Amino acid sequence: MWSDQDHECEATAEQRRQLREKEEAVKNLKRESRARGSGPPRKLKKLNPAIELMKMKMHAKGDKAVPLESRLFYRVYFPTANKVENQPMFFHKDWTVGRAIDAVATFGKIVNDNNMGDASKMLNFYHGDTGELLPTTASFSELTADKRLVSGQSVLLERGGIQTVDPALFRTA
């Protein structure tokens, strides 16, 4: 019964040396990866808008009385002062922005002082990409018709009578 260790053939000795080198290289790689930890944070890859909308529809909250064909979906970012996670939500296409603000405030358990008249305490919706103020009297169908807002985009809820907000302040993840 012969084995590789019984004779010193050059071919088997070379194979054993190569195998030891490979094993040592693998051990070094494992050691380096453990020392590095989880590595640098990865950049989040932006999803295809159609896929994002599909995912949004699966988890969206809203008034169940709104017919499926009348729903418009948006990712709502809550005021930075409140510690409420962003949430996909849906609204009726004929609702005004003001009515949607009321619904979002109720859902997020946020005090809504919009009927008091103090502009600094009023809740407003802002466009998620541009930070532009959305008029409270405009309906979602009007905003989508003139392409200012598209189902699947983000809207930012914030207090104050300012015309624009910085969208980067809302995205902490």
TrEMBL record:
Domain ZFAND1-like ubiquitin-like, first and last residues per copy: 90-160
Protein species of origin: Powellomyces hirtus
Official protein name in the record: ZFAND1-like ubiquitin-like domain-containing protein
Region (Disordered): 1-44
Pfam families from the UniProt entry: UBL_ZFAND1
InterPro entries xref list: UBL_ZFAND1-like
Lineage, opening ranks: Eukaryota, Fungi, Fungi incertae sedis, Chytridiomycota, Chytridiomycota incertae sedis
Amino acid composition bias (Basic and acidic residues), ranges on this chain: 1-35
